[in-house]
Amino acid sequence: MENINLNTRYVRERFTFLFDGLDIDDFRRTSAENEKRILDERIKSILREERRKRKQRRIWDMAKDIQDEINEYLIKASKPKNDFEKMLMNKMTKELGTVTSAKELSLFLKIGKSSIYRGLDTGEILSFRSGKRRFILTEGVLPFLRD
Q1: Contact 26, 34 (CB under 8 A)
Q2: What is the rounded distance in angstroms from the CA atom of residue 91 to the CA atom of residue 106?
Q3: Distance set, CA 85 to CA 20, 88, 104, 114 (Å)
Q4: CB under 8 Å to 98, separation ≥6 — which residues?
Q5: pTM here?
Q6: Which residue in 20, 40, 65, 96 is deepest, having the highest Cβ count within 10 Å?
Q7: pLDDT digits (tens, 9 = 90+) for 103-119
C-alpha cells in the first residue's frame, strides 16, 4: 500500500507541469471553479436576454397603447368639421403626403417654422421622432390650424 502511495506521489510530482504546476487536487478544484464560473456567466447571459425580451415586450405594448391614443386623437381632434377643412386635408395629403417635415409644412401653409415648432412643443400638432428627425402627421395639423 505504501509502495502505491509512493508511486502515485512520484507520478504526481513528475507530471505537475502538465497541470500548470498544480497538484491534481488543486487542478480538480480550479477546474470545478472554472466550470462554475462558466455556468454562472451562462446563467447571467440567459437572464440578461430574458430582461431584454421583457423590456422589448413592454415597449411593444406601450407602442400599441400609443397607437390607440393616436387613433383616438385623430378621430376626435383631426376629423374635418366642414367642407373647407376636408378640402384642405385632401390638398395637404396630396401635396405633402401622410407624413411631412416642419420645413415642408411651413412652406405649404406659408407660416414661419417657429410657429410650427411651437405647435409641436405644445402638442397641438401630432408628430413623432425617428432618430434626430421629427415627422409631422398631416392629419394631426388640423387642431393647430383651428386655433
Answers
A1: no
A2: 15
A3: 83, 5, 19, 23
A4: 137, 138, 139
A5: 0.48
A6: 96
A7: 999 999 999 999 999 98
